Amino acid sequence: MATGIITPGMSIREQTPLQLAFYRVIFGTETPAGKWFDICLIMVILASVLVVMLDSIPRYNESYALLFLQIEWGFTLLFTAEYLVRLWCAPNRKGYALSVYGVVDLLALLPTYISLFVPQAASLLIIRLLRILRIFRVLRLLTLLDEANDLARALHNSTRKIFVFFSLMMILTTIFGCLIYVIEGPEHGFNSIPHSIYWAIVTITTVGYGDVTPMTPLGQALASAGMLIGYAVIAVPTGIVTAELTLSQRLKKERLIRSSRNCTTCAHVETDPGAHYCRHCGSQLPAPGHQPETEHKETS
C-alpha cells in the first residue's frame, strides 16, 4: 500500500522544487534531514500519547484538565499541518491518503475536531492513541524493516503448523474441561462444561486466576497434569516460529554468499548485488557470478 513513496507503476504528478524539497525531508527517511524529521516526529508522537494517558488519570484530569486540553490542541494543530504538508508534497496524494499511514494520521486528528461539534463524541478522543502506530515509521529509520519482514514471513510460514497445534490444544482443553466437570461437579464451583473448559484453558496456559479450584485429590492431580502440559503451550509455538526464522536467516545468508564478489585490488568482499565499484578502494568489481581467474588456479 502506498505511503507517499514513489513506486513503479504509480500515477504521479509533477512536483515543484519546493514540493520536492519537502518530499525529501518528510518521506525521504534515508536522507539526513529526513532522519532528523522522523526523530522529532517520533518524540512529538510519544509526548502526545503521554498526554492522552495522563489525561485518563482522574486526579490529573481534575487538576490539569484545561492544560491537557490546550496541549492536545497544540499537538492536533501540529499533526494537522504535517498531514496537509504530506498531502501537498506527495507525488501520489490519493495513494498517501488511502494508505495505512495516511488513514491512521487522519483518524488521529478527527476526534479532536469532532468533539467541537458533538460533545458526546468526547469518548472518541481515545482514538488519539492510534498515533502511536505511526512509531512504526521508525522501522525504516533504523533500517529494521528487513527484520520486521523476516518476522512476518516466519509467522506466515508457520500459520498451518500453529493452527494444527492450537486445534489440538482446543481438543485437549475440552477433554480436560469435561473430566474436571465429572470429577469436581457443581458442588465445587464447576457449574457447567463450558465453565470447566474455561478453567482448563486458564490452567493449561499457567495463568491460574484461582476463581475456581479443584478440591478433590483426583481433580488436583488433573490440574497438576494440566500445568505441566502448559509449558508445551509456550514452547511449541515459539519453537515453530524460531525454526522458520532460522531457516529464513540461513537462506538469506546463502543468497548473500552467492551474490558476493571479491575486489581484485584489495580483496574486499562486497555483498551488495547492485554495487559496481569497491567501497574500500574504488576499483571496478567483477560482474555478479564472475570470479577472478586467480581464484580458480590450482597450485602445482
Automatic annotation (TrEMBL):
Is Transmembrane helix given among the entry's keywords?
Answer: yes
Tell me which Pfam families the record gives: Ion_trans (PF00520)
Q: Which InterPro entries has this protein been placed in?
A: Ion_trans_dom (IPR005821), VG_K_chnl (IPR028325), Volt_channel_dom_sf (IPR027359)
Supply the alphabetized keyword list: Ion channel, Ion transport, Membrane, Potassium, Potassium channel, Potassium transport, Transmembrane, Transmembrane helix, Transport, Voltage-gated channel
Q: Where are the transmembrane segments?
A: 36-54, 66-88, 108-130, 162-183, 221-247
One GO biological process term = action potential
What's one GO MF term for it?
Answer: voltage-gated potassium channel activity
Where does this polypeptide localize? Membrane
Q: Which Gene3D superfamilies match?
A: 1.10.287.70, Voltage-gated potassium channels. Chain C
GO CC terms of this entry: voltage-gated potassium channel complex
Q: What is its main location?
A: membrane
| Topology in membrane | Multi-pass membrane protein
Domain Ion transport per the UniProt entry, residue ranges: 35-245
Q: What is this protein called?
A: Ion transporter
Native source organism of the sequence: Seongchinamella sediminis
